[in-house]
Every structure is written in C-alpha cells, then in structure tokens.
Amino acid sequence: MPAPGELTLVAPRRAKPPRHLADLAPGERKAAVEELGHKGFRAKQLATHYFTHHNADPDTWTDVPAKDREALANALFPPLLTPVRDITCDEGTTRKTLWRLFDGALVESVLMRYPDRVTVCVSSQAGCGMNCPFCATGQGGLTRNMSTAEIVDQVVAAARALDRGEVAGGPGRVSNVVFMGMGEPLANYNATSAAVARLIDPTPDGLGLSRRSVTVSTVGLVPGIAKLADSGLGVTLALSLHAPDDELRDTLVPINTRYPVAEVVGTAHDYFVRTGRRVSIEYALIRDINDQAWRADELARVLAFAGPGAWAHVNLIPLNPTPGSKWTASRPKDERTFVRRLEAAGVPVTVRDTRGREIDGACGQLAAADLEAIDEEAGA
C-alpha cells in the first residue's frame, strides 16, 4: 500500500514488453544466461556488444559460438523500438524519431548535436497522465509505462546512429541524456531509476555516462523526488514549475492541486541539499499567461524562500505551440523583461535553445500526427 499522501499513478493494464538484457541489472544477467543453458561469462560478452558497441546483431558476435547466437539474441535482444519516421532540421544535427513499440504504442526521442556535446531526449511513458493543457503529450493521455529496456534502447539507438556517422558532423558519442520526452518519469519510477542506472553504470555493464550528464525531469511528484534523492543515483533534477503561484499552476500543471508550489519547491531544495546537484527549474514562457514581470519577481521570492544561495538555475523555455492551441510563446520583449527581473534578484537564468520547431519539436506532436493519419486511413 502507498504511504499516506503518496501519489500512485497506474497506467492502463497492457501486455508487458518482452524481457531484454537492459532490463536486467549486471548481477542478474549471468543467471539469465545460465538459465538459457549457456556459460555465465557470455553475459559479459553480450553486455559488451550492446552497451559498448551498441550492437544487437548476432551475426557480428564473433566471440560467441555461431550455434548459440540466434538463441541468445531471441531470448535477450527482442526488438523493442521500430522506427516509424525520422525528421531532421538544423542542417541534420537535430533528429527526431517516432518509434513504434511492440504493442503499437508510439513514443518519440530527439537527438541534438551541439559543437561540444550530443544530447538525447528520451521518453519514459507512452503518453502522459499529467494532463498539462499546453502539452501535446498530456492532451493525448497515458497509454502505458515504458520498460527499462525501452527507455535505454532509445539512447543505444542514438549512439549507434552516431557510431555509423548517420548524424551530420560525422561519428560521435552520446554525452548527455535528458528525461524530457513523452511521459512523467517519476510516475514510472522503477523503470526510470533502473534506466538511469544502466546509463551511468561503467561499460560494459552500462553506457558509462557521467551522473552529471543525466537529467530527470518531473512536474513535481514529491514522493518521487524524495525517492530519487535517496537512491544514490545523484543525477540532475529538473522541476517543471511553469508558474510561481498556486492559482495559476493549478491550471497549468494540475498535479499542483496535490503538491502545491511551496511543497514541491521545498522538496526540490531538499534534493539539492541531499545530492549537491543544483536543480534546474523549467519554466515555459506562455504569452500573457505566466510571463508577467511580477511573476518573475514571485519566482525569485519562492526560490529564495525555499533556501539560500544559488541552489537552483531557471531554464526559461520559449513555448513550442501545438497546432490549434491557444497557448503560444511570449513576446520577445516580455521574455527579455522576465530574464532581467530574475537576474536583478540574483537568480541564475538562461533561455533554452529552441531547436526542433520545424519538426514538430514539442513532445507528442509527431506521435499525434501519426495517430491522426492512422485514424483517417481507418475511416476512409
């Protein structure tokens, strides 16, 4: 039973994704391989192929006997993500991929290449149950939680594309992962935390990313934030706040009626104290809704009330509007004023790079478009 006051969000019951090597912790893989009738050391070989070489093609496993490859691949590397379409922009350095999961659910990931890093934005749920009105994913509702391996495989697919030089700029490597795609990561806590572990485990047990380079975003599930602080994973927390006052945030982020601003910001500050990781405060600037100068002042006050010092960094996001939505990005002058007011209060602030606008950059837009096309074909 959940603890008193703890939020329990249950995705609709569906068939489980097939078991994959990435679903298993390093200590579980040897037993799984032995249960299949193979030598335990094969587990390390398979992990090396997948996590180090980003390769799940048994035909290339020259260190595994040919007679064993197909059986091991069938048992531990079932296909999880099938690409539906890729759309690129920014001269090929930004690539958004729509994936179809084993049960037909659709999710999205985005690879963004910068001069000094490559960031992959991953989904943690098919859809989302948070119902934020300005978010394309939230308006589609929750289909189901993703498995650990489905989350990890988005990163491995990006790494494989970079290995092969399929992204503009030539071969490269993934340096950063952000859980800012479809879904609320902390509503799928077990799979999210296990996926983070696979990302930061040293190769060949995992992908070997730095803890500092992994960011988990949340709309403010207080029990999940506290649990993540206790996990020892030590990754960066991003809090999608979007409003500094309860009256507005109740509308923009409905979960605020359960976990109001003061509580969620206070818990984010506790995360900073526990982990030493500065928290990112995500704030989508929406024209005439939350971009008033007085709200910038109130945001600075709320952050200062939670704790002294520069424990949080405000990341302002020019809203990427969804088709037909009344919500749109702030005027440039209002954005500049918002920034100046935060800076005047001593709050570290940046405006996020607006990549992906021309490729349905807002999470959920590509999936929604594909579902609409399927519905139109069915009705034809």
Describe this structure in words.
The protein folds into two domains: 21-76, DNA polymerase, domain 1 (Orthogonal Bundle), CATH 1.10.150; 82-379, TIM Barrel. The model is unreliable at 1-8 and 371-380 (pLDDT under 50). It has a ten-stranded mixed beta sheet, covered by helices on one side. A two-stranded antiparallel ribbon has the order 5-6. 46% of the residues are buried. The chain is elongated and about 70 Å long. The protein has twelve helices and twelve strands. It is an alpha/beta fold. It is an enzyme of class 2 (transferase). Its EC number is 2.1.1.192. It holds the Pfam family Radical_SAM.
Report the C-alpha radius of gyration, rounded: 21 Å
Order of helices and strands: HHHEEEEEHEHEHEHEHHEHEHEH
Could you give the order of strands across the largest sheet? 1-2-3-4-7-8-9-10-11-12
Would you count the extended β strands for me?
A: 12
Poorly predicted regions: 1-8, 371-380
Q: Which homologous superfamily in CATH is the superfamily of the largest domain?
A: Aldolase class I
Structural class: alpha/beta
Name of the top-level CATH class of the largest domain = Alpha Beta
Tell me the distance between the termini. 47 Å
CATH topology of the largest domain: TIM Barrel
- Global mean pLDDT: 91
**Beta-strand level of the residues, as a percent range?**
15-25%
CATH architecture of the largest domain, by name, is: Alpha-Beta Barrel
Largest sheet properties? 10 strands, mixed
Number of domains: 2
Number of helices: 12
Question: What share of residues is helical?
Answer: 25-40%
Query: What's the overall geometry?
Result: elongated
Domain Radical SAM core: 114-358
Enzyme class: transferase
EC number: 2.1.1.192
Protein name: Probable dual-specificity RNA methyltransferase RlmN
